[in-house]
């Protein structure tokens, strides 16, 4: 029998692994600043040289970035899987918007299901906080802030699902999702009834997760996205009718001018 020698892991490698897990689990977010070196070494219970070595290794791997005189941050571009040219393609092709809605059915339905099953009291408190922010900007009618709060609400649900792949898939879609939600709301929100209904649907989703009902949570997501798709299609028909009316008016005007 061959025995392999057991090596004591380096302290810096243990620290590095813990920071990696915090990034993977969403405890540390892209762009977030780490606590100062002195504070972090106390939290981990290690020496500052060991901590510094771990940070340098993570910087070399592109997970952290150090700014001279400005501290250490989780890399901003972590998980940014969609490039700007691709986002432009999504925005310029109307059918792609419906493909994205279909993708959201799958991704967000699963997120809501597992969030209802697995969310801790702290997770539910965070989701509730995101919903309250959404409510505040909804009441103030601050459109840009409402879009941002809408995205944060959905991401807080993904984090509560406690599935690291699911969470980072959602985060990779963050910019695209912001564009998508913003584009949808800009078309839908001029009509107060639509706006009110969508906000009510967010409330139903929150209630299902807080009640720990995974089936109801998944259904709330599906109902919400089905409604958004239905309204967008109706809005598209309305825009087409308006364009036809304008063309007819323009032709009539040309006929009168010619006569």
Automatic annotation (TrEMBL):
<dbReference type="Pfam" id="PF07729">
    <property type="entry name" value="FCD"/>
</dbReference>
<protein>
    <recommendedName>
        <fullName>Pyruvate dehydrogenase complex repressor</fullName>
    </recommendedName>
</protein>
<dbReference type="InterPro" id="IPR036390">
    <property type="entry name" value="WH_DNA-bd_sf"/>
</dbReference>
<feature type="domain" description="HTH gntR-type">
    <location>
        <begin position="9"/>
        <end position="77"/>
    </location>
</feature>
<dbReference type="InterPro" id="IPR000524">
    <property type="entry name" value="Tscrpt_reg_HTH_GntR"/>
</dbReference>
<comment type="function">
    <text>Transcriptional repressor for the pyruvate dehydrogenase complex genes aceEF and lpd.</text>
</comment>
<keyword id="KW-0678">Repressor</keyword>
<dbReference type="InterPro" id="IPR011711">
    <property type="entry name" value="GntR_C"/>
</dbReference>
<dbReference type="Pfam" id="PF00392">
    <property type="entry name" value="GntR"/>
</dbReference>
<keyword id="KW-0805">Transcription regulation</keyword>
<dbReference type="GO" id="GO:0003677">
    <property type="term" value="F:DNA binding"/>
</dbReference>
<keyword id="KW-0804">Transcription</keyword>
<dbReference type="InterPro" id="IPR008920">
    <property type="entry name" value="TF_FadR/GntR_C"/>
</dbReference>
<keyword id="KW-0238">DNA-binding</keyword>
<dbReference type="InterPro" id="IPR036388">
    <property type="entry name" value="WH-like_DNA-bd_sf"/>
</dbReference>
<dbReference type="GO" id="GO:0003700">
    <property type="term" value="F:DNA-binding transcription factor activity"/>
</dbReference>
């Amino acid at each position: 029998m061959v025995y392999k020698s057991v090596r004591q892991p380096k302290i810096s490698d243990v620290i590095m692994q813990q920071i990696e897990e915090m990034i993977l689990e969403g405890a540390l977010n892209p762009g977030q600043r780490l606590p100062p070196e002195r504070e972090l070494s106390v939290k981990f219970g290690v020496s500052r040289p060991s901590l510094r070595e771990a940070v340098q290794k993570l910087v070399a791997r592109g997970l952290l970035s150090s700014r001279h005189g400005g501290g250490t941050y989780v890399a901003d571009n972590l998980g940014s899987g969609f490039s700007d040219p691709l986002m432009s393609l999504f925005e310029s092709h109307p059918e792609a918007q419906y493909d994205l809605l279909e993708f959201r059915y799958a991704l967000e339905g699963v997120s809501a299901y597992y969030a209802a099953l697995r969310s801790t009291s702290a997770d539910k408190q965070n989701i509730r906080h995101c919903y309250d922010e959404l409510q505040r900007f909804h009441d103030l009618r601050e459109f840009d802030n409402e879009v941002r709060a809408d995205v944060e609400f959905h991401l807080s649900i993904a984090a509560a699902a406690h599935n690291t792949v699911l969470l980072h898939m959602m985060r990779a879609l963050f910019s695209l999702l912001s564009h998508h939600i913003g584009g949808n709301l800009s078309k839908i929100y001029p009509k107060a009834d639509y706006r009110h209904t969508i906000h009510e649907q967010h409330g139903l989703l929150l209630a299902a997760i807080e009640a720990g009902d995974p089936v109801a949570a998944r259904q709330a997501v599906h109902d919400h996205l089905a409604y958004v798709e239905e309204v967008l299609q109706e809005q598209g028909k309305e825009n087409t009718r308006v364009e036809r009316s304008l063309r007819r008016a323009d032709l009539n005007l040309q006929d009168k001018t010619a006569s």
